[in-house]
Amino acid sequence: MAPSRLQHSTSSTGFSLVELVVVMLVLGVIAAIAAPRFGHASSTFRLDAAIQKIESDLRYAAQMARSQSRTVAVTFDPATDSYTVSGVDSPLDGTGNYRVDLSQPPYEVDIADVRFSGGLASMFRIDGHGSPLNAGVIRIELGPNARLIGVEWTLPSDAKVKAQAVEPSKDVLDLELVVPDGYIKGL
Description:
187 residues, elongated
C-alpha cells in the first residue's frame, strides 16, 4: 500500500524554530564570553607593537647620531601622543624631522607619562658616538591596559628596552623604577 500524503509531510528534514533559537542563544553566550578577551588581546597587541616601534626608532636614532657624528634627541610629547627624532629625516620619505604619532593606527595608544634624567624630562638624547646621555621611563596606555617602558643603553646602538604591565592609575614615580638621577633600577 502506498504511503499517504499525511505521512510524507510529517518527516521534515529542517530545523524547528525552537532549535534555531537555542542555537542562537548558545552562540550569543559564547560571543559574550569571548568579546572581552578579544578586546584585551587586541589592546595588548597594540601596546606591544608600540613598544617595538619605540625600541626600533631609538636604535635608528642612535645609528643616525653615529653616522652624522652629532647628538640626536628623541622628544616625547604626551599631549599629542607622539615623538620626534630631531634632525633626522623620516626613513619613509626622507624629509623633515622624523615624527611618529602613536595615537594613529595601528598603535592607537596614549603616551601617559614620560620621565628622563638630565634636566629635560621628555627628551632622550644620544651623543655622536651612539651612546645615551640619559635614561628614563615612558608609560603608554590603551583602555584598561598600560605598560611602563624603561630605556637605557648597554653598548652603543644596543638599546635595552624593558616593558612591564602596570595599572593605568599608577604614576611613573609611584613604581620606584627611577632612582634620583633618573637611571632605571633592575634593567
